[in-house]
Structure formats: C-alpha cells, structure tokens
Amino acid sequence: MEQVKNFIGGQLTDSQSSRISSIFNPATGQVVRQVALSTTHETQHAIESAHLAFTEWSKTSPLKRARIMFKFKSLLEENCDRLARLISEEHGKIYSDAVGELTRGLEVVEFACGIPHLQKGEHSANVGTGVDSHSLMQPLGVCAGITPFNFPAMVPMWMFPVALATGNTFVLKPSEKDPSLSIELAKLLQQAGVPDGVFNVIQGDKEAVDVLLTDPRIQAVSFVGSTPIAEYVYTTASAHGKRCQALGGAKNHSVLMPDADIDMAANAIMGAAFGAAGERCMALSVVLAVGDEIADKLVEKLRHQIGHMSVGTGITEGKENDMGPVITEQHKAKICDYIRSGVEQGAKLLVDGRGYQVAGYENGYFVGPTLFDYVTPDMKIYKEEIFGPVLAIVRVPDYDTALNLVNYHEYGNGAAIFTRDGETARQFSEDVQAGMVGVNIPIPVPMAFHSFGGWKRSIFGPLNVHGNDGVRFYTRMKTVTSRWPASVRLEHHDSSFVMPTME
Which pLDDT score, from 0 to 100, does residue 495 have? Predict the structure, then answer.
C-alpha cells in the first residue's frame, strides 16, 4: 500500500519507523494510504537540513524570495483541482469547501509576495549630529509548524509562506490523519524554486512534536489544535527558549437580536454551524437568541433548512452535497457522546444527527446536522468544543445577558452579532471578549493582510498568524546606530546608460 513519505533536504524519503498509522477515506471508512510516524532521529535530520540551508536562504534578497512566492501562487492555482480532490479524499469535506480552503491559503501566499515592502524596517536620519539610526527585520532561523487535520492546506499556509518569505527555513509536521497534501505543497515549493532544505516535512505524532519543541536549532514554533495541546506546546516551547504562537480551541457564539434579518441570519448560521461538518475552529456552535419570539422564528427556519440538507461524500457527480463525513470513527463516537450528554442534561433535541446513513457508504463516518434548543450554560454541550455538526440555541432575555455569556466563556476565538442596529453592533464590537468579531458575518475570518487569532484560552502567545503579526513573529528587530568619519570622495564614476535593476 502507498505510504506517505517525509520530505527532507529536497528529497522524498522513507521513514524507517515501525510505527505505522492508517489514513482513511472518511466517506468510505476504507484505508487509502499509510504513514510512518517518524523517529526522533528522522525529525532531527529534518531540522538539520533546515539549519544547514538557513544561511544562504536568509541572505537571498527579499525580491528573489517574493518571486518564488509568486511562482508558488501560480502553481497552486494550476493544481487547485487535483489538490482539492486529495483534501476531500483524506479529510472528507466537500469539493467546493476544499477549493475554498486552498483559496484562503493562497491569499496568505499573495500577502507574502509583498515581503520586500513588509520587511523594510525603519530609518531616522540625524538622531544626533551626524548620527543615523535604522532598523533591520531579520529572520530567526529554523521555524516549525505543527498543524491539525481540519485544514491540511490552509493552516500550513498560514505559517510557512510568511516564514519563508522573511528568510527563515521551515519544518512542517502535519496531522497524521490527512498528511498527503503536505507533500504536494513541498513539491510545488520545490518547483517554484525553493532551494533544497529550506522547506521540510516530517510525518509523525507526539514523538516528532516533542523534538520540534525542544531542539535548540528550532527558533520558533507555530501550532493550531485543541487548547490542552496548545497550552502544552506553548509551555514546552517557551521553556526551551523558543518563540511560540499556539492557537487552541473555540466555542464561537453569535448573538441574535430581535431586530435581525431572520432570513439572512438563518442562512448564515446554517453554513457556519454545519459547513465542513462543524470541524472548524471558527465554526458557529452557539446562538444566543435574545427573546423567545426571535428564537422561535430561528428554530422554525433552521429545522426546515436542515430537513433539506444533503449529507454525503465530498466528491460526487451532479449536485454537490452540503456536508461530508467527520474525520474518523473515533471522532464520530465522541460527537455522538456529546449529543447524548445534551439529552441527558435536559436540552431539547430538535434534530438528531446520530445514526445517519448514506446509501452506499454505510461504513462512512457520517454525523447528520444536529440542533439543540433550550441549552443552558451549565451543560457540557455549551461549555466544551464539540468540533462537529452540533448547534446549540441558548435563549436569553436581553443583550446584556448575551454579552456576559460570551465574555465569561473560557474561549474567545470568534463572536458574531446579527442586528440591523448600528449602535448595538458598534457596542458589541467594542465590548465583546473575542479576537475576531463579525457583524452580520457568521465566520469573521480576516483576510490575509490582517491577522488571525483569538483571545483567552483560544491562543497562547502574544502574536497572531499571518498579516503584520505574522511578519513580526518570524522576524526580530535589530537597530543600527551609525556615525561615519569624513572620507575622501570618489573622484570618478563610469557612466551607465541602462535601467538599473536589483537582484
């Protein structure tokens, strides 16, 4: 059976590890590939490859690095269909969602193409008599990215395009559940002109992660995953002197005001709650409905729309499904346990996604869209991140109660409000304790030239990913203050009659 390889020093390499993990197609439940979970020695080899490549790559001009990013962008566009199908096969998400993931990752590549401007630094003339000061934004060295299963393309591309463009080298450790896309990205980077050793992929699990968190050659670590692991990554990496940005879990709330456009809100909530089978850190999993009247209207519309949803395979002939399977059989069981917990704790189960069957794909890991009403803040399904297609409606009497619930929750990744009132929206945007806020936008993921990151226990570390924070994370400032003695002026210059260019 095909085995997903490592990519080290510009070469596809087989792991010698005896620990083998199966990669499943979530729609069929069938093993499609295998991946070896790399050893400590193999992980160290990937780090050494990046370490050796750093000096030359860091001295490469930002202009040349930007041109490589431009070429990489073009290759991503050319290969979009093939890559999206691979994502769908190993993750299970529908094809158009996989294309959307690639598009959002490609936007960070586009941002990284502007690195000659973004990495300019600052300059002040005559800070003292005959004294000038300027700053340099220099790369760190070898950086590592540890990424989750739910976005095998987008999340790595939140990290490595900015890291590479600023002159760092990189070691990527993708999820072992859907690792094949990482190798395809490595091949395209090589084709775009990234020198051998600059970008490396090591397949593995905690053994590889712990090497990345402790090896002294690693200067910075980026992570996206659950909050307990994010906290572990941040604590361990920081204890070993590394920069770290570790993005954790979420429980994204939306406040539905009585004056909201209920049709627009219901449509938005449907996609945000059930898109990608709810396996998004920005999935909308809680609606705080202000008043019973608007809650009743929302429930009626959601039940109707859920009844018309199509759940099935990610790749299909004809009309595309709305939602695919979840990632593994174990995760399916975990989601179903949350649903059971909600029923036991007294929430009203309006739509039950357990036992969902897709004809011809009875072994797939399908969970249907699930809707709870009358959820209360003491319930497990309210407090914890489910990471599945489960939506909880909490009925609250007023805006202040809704705002307090959002602000007192341990997570603060994203929050949204649906309203027609500008003053309410403005007040919510200022007062809500969340890193990303949507006004009549259910999934407020910023564009690549802004930065992505939550608050509270949704992030560990002071800097978010991509945007200006990403550039700051992958560079360190050096300030040079200089005075020059008087010197003999050059007396002669040869003339040149061609347009000057920089290489």
Answer: 72
Domain covering 252-439 assigned CATH 3.40.309.10 in the classification:
yes
The residues that bridge with 371 in the sheet, in sequence order, are 351, 391
Evaluate whether 62 touches 113 at the Cβ level (below 8 Å): no
Examine the residue annotation and report whether 281 is marked as an active-site residue of this protein.
Answer: yes
Strand partners, 36: 20
Instruction: State the CB neighbour count (10 A cutoff) for residue 133.
Output: 15
Q: Report whether pLDDT(492) > 90.
A: no
User: What integer pLDDT is reported at residue 317 of this predicted model?
Assistant: 87
Residues 6 or more apart whose Cβ sits within 8 Å of residue 488? none
Between CA 465 and CA 453 the distance in angstroms is 7
How does pLDDT run across 167-184, given as a tens digit for each residue?
Answer: 999 999 999 999 999 999
Tokens 């649903």 sit at which residue?
339
Catalytic residue among 113, 244, 281, 336: 281
Residue 225 pLDDT class (50, 70, 90 cuts): very high
Domain assignments of the chain as residue spans, ordered by start: 3-248+458-481, 252-439
| Phi, then psi, of 495 in degrees rounded to 5 | -80, 150
Q: CATH number of 3-248+458-481: 3.40.50.2020, 3.40.50.20, 3.40.605.10, 3.40.50.300? A: 3.40.605.10
pLDDT digits (tens, 9 = 90+) for 35-87: 999 999 999 999 999 999 999 999 999 999 999 999 999 999 999 999 999 99
Cβ atoms within 10 Å of 397's Cβ, excluding its own: 10
Looking at the DSSP bridge assignments, the partners of residue 255 are: 288, 417
CA distance 496 to 25: 62
Nearest to 367 by CA among 342, 341, 337, 395: 337
